[in-house]
Amino acid sequence: MGTPIRHPLIDAVSARVVRVDSRSRVVRLSAPLADLLARRRGRRRIVIVTGESSRLTVGTRAALVHAGAAWAVRDEHGDLRDGLTGSPYADLDSAGWPPSPPDDLSRQEVAPEPIVVQEAVDTIAQLSVDLTVLHRPDHDTTLGGAVEVLSRAVAGATPDRWGETEPLRRPWDRWVLTQSARHAAPALVRVVVEGPGLSGTLTARVTENGIEETTALTITVPAVTPAGGGETDPVDAAVGRLTEALSEIARTSVPTFALVVAREGEPDRSVRAVTYPPPNPVVLLIGAPSVQRLGLTVSTIPVPRPVTVVGRPRLPAYVVPLGDAATSGWDALHDTLDAVGPERLAEMVSPPLLEAWEDDLDEHDLLHEHRRADTDASASDTDEEAPPGAP
What sign results for the dihedral spanned by CA atoms 365, 144, 336, 342? Predict the structure, then answer.
């Protein structure tokens, strides 16, 4: 056997860490970095080390989290901290696998003092949406519809490019994206999408039982509300439009869950190693499969504002209002999750979703029930036609 060749991005290897140094001001998900993060390293954790001035793109952050890797930031004093959480590291190995056990007194004796992290400046209002949709495995199913509906509702624009690595070189094309996911089956496909005022990732897994599509999108909130918006706060106006978009998605497809969070972030939607204002959950969508499995009724959801029933009569889904620009939604979210059952919820959202949901989809025939709902809608003169780009 030949001598193993170290990956070109690796700068050092210790007992617990694979170290990657970067001096880039913007750490993008380049092809070599994507390749490294895709490799499973059970005994060592990949740690990207940067200075304080560096920032991660949405694609890099998503790939880093998915790989279980870490971002270590070294400040001007030589101290290390986690770039996403701000937690201090005694040394680089402290960021590695396995984590130091809480009763490891030797490490407690050298635990670093808390680091004062600079607060973010010049941030702008954003909405982040995490949504999972299940599709039939039909040949006419296309991915990316949810991205278009959500981004158009908030930013008035849709993605214009996508790709597995950055910079993104492929023009936005839902058919090409779908074929890429089909060719990769049954492996998971994760791509980055960008457009005017929006950045995000889309993951898809194609199986014989169906297609699982997860969208994680960050959208800049327009500073001015559309004409006729009156004195409505721009964030609240955007949340209202996004809520309508989620209702439409529930009517035209089979979502399981969606969570909308209002936040302050960078104008380019990247993330820096600074302290941002606390995010605020504003809307929760409980899709038809979740309502079916959990046996939910509107009265079981303990929130102060009315819950809206959306979707089809035979496929009810719930839109749960949590907060707004002036009100924290954390209490409402916690109360809702407690009513649903945290353990049951954790089981339901654990990937791969199509395996976790297989019995329910078969028992209730949800994907084909959705097809019948579409057929009924097309045959009815009272139902509205789904808008272009609907998932």
Answer: positive
270: exposed, middle or buried (C-beta count within 10 Å: 0-12, 13-18, 19+)?
A: buried
Query: Does residue 189 contact residue 180 with C-beta atoms inside 8 Å?
Result: yes
Determine the Cα–Cα distance for residues 63 and 279; give it in Å rounded to an integer.
21
Peptide bond between residue 388 and the one before it cis (omega within 30 degrees of 0): no
Contact 16, 47 (CB under 8 A): no
Q: Phi/psi of residue 102, each to 5°?
A: -65, -20
**pLDDT tens, the chain, 391 aa long:** 455 567 889 999 998 999 999 999 999 999 999 999 988 667 889 999 999 999 999 999 999 999 999 999 999 888 999 999 999 999 999 999 766 554 444 444 455 566 678 899 999 999 999 999 988 878 888 999 999 999 999 999 999 999 999 999 999 999 999 999 999 888 889 999 999 999 999 999 888 778 889 999 999 999 876 555 556 899 999 999 999 999 999 998 889 999 999 999 999 999 999 999 999 999 999 998 888 888 888 988 988 999 999 988 888 999 999 999 999 999 999 999 888 877 766 665 555 555 544 554 444 444 555 554 454 444 443 343 333 333 4
Which helix (H) or strand (E) segment is 192 a member of? strand 189-195
Pairing of strands 170-171, 80-82: unpaired
Position 58: which residue type? V
What phi and psi values does residue 99 have, to the nearest 5 degrees?
Answer: -60, 150
Helix (H) or strand (E) holding 257: strand 254-265
Select from 133, 129, 68 the least CA-distant residue to 95: 68
Considering the entire predicted model, what is its pTM? 0.84
Enter the DSSP assignment of 197.
T
The residue assigned the tokens 């497809």 is 253
Cα separation, 212 vs 204, in Å, equals 5
